[in-house]
Amino acid sequence: MNLESLRRRLSSDEINALPLCHYEGPIHLVRSLEDWEKALPDLAREQVLGFDTETRPSFRKGRLNTPSLVQLATGRAVYLVQLSWWPFGPELAGLLADPGVIKAGVAIGDDMRELGRLYPFTPAGTVDLGMVARAHQLTTQGLRTLAANLFGQRISKGPQCSNWSVPELSKRQVIYAATDAWIGRAIYLRMRELGMTGEAA
User: For residues 6 and 138, is the Cβ–Cβ distance under 8 A?
Assistant: First the structure.
């Protein structure tokens, strides 16, 4: 695989013809400080986290909802932090502000800005995968298209517009949310292997 081959734009038909993939490893719901403290040893071992958020869609003009879910992927598990159970605060903000831990995702600056409305903090260690792709003239810059280009696989976007603020997430929501964080980490690591991130693999 080389950068030149990655610069070709895949059509929707080509992407839809690819095999569907999703995260199949352990998924942990974080709903309390106790849950967070159980997750911390794994998160603390990791130098690269896949990161994403989910927000309940608003169908009223001018109204924006705040994030309902924060997803963090390590090399061993994915953690889904449900903010309706455990509000965003200093513990999670501290991890997102740690410059020594890379948080990789698409449009990650927007996610961090929205979380900052819940609890003020200064994000650090963030890598926007779309911006890395743009810097190398890749035409694919979204999570789905990057997964297709880099891995030849398709991720589902089905539950994207579902209600993420419900107390009990459906199995489809859990797998979808975990997959987005997991594939974000995988994309970052593949980009690093290809010398796209400016650091050694």
Answer: yes
The whole-model pTM stands at 0.91
pLDDT per residue as tens digits for the range 106-145? 999 999 999 999 999 999 999 999 999 999 888 777 888 8
Residue 20 per-residue DSSP state: B
Nearest to 114 by CA among 75, 69, 145: 69
Inter-residue long-range contacts of 132-137, CB under 8 Å, 24+ positions, other chains counted: 132/191, 132/196, 132/197, 133/191, 133/196, 135/196, 136/3, 136/6, 136/196, 137/7
Domain boundaries in the chain? 26-138+157-191
Which of residues 3 and 109 earns the better pLDDT score? 109
Q: Which CATH architecture has domain 26-138+157-191?
A: 2-Layer Sandwich (3.30)
Q: In a 3-state reduction of DSSP, which class is residue 187?
A: helix
Say if residue 161's pLDDT is above 70.
no
Place of tokens 């292997």: 193
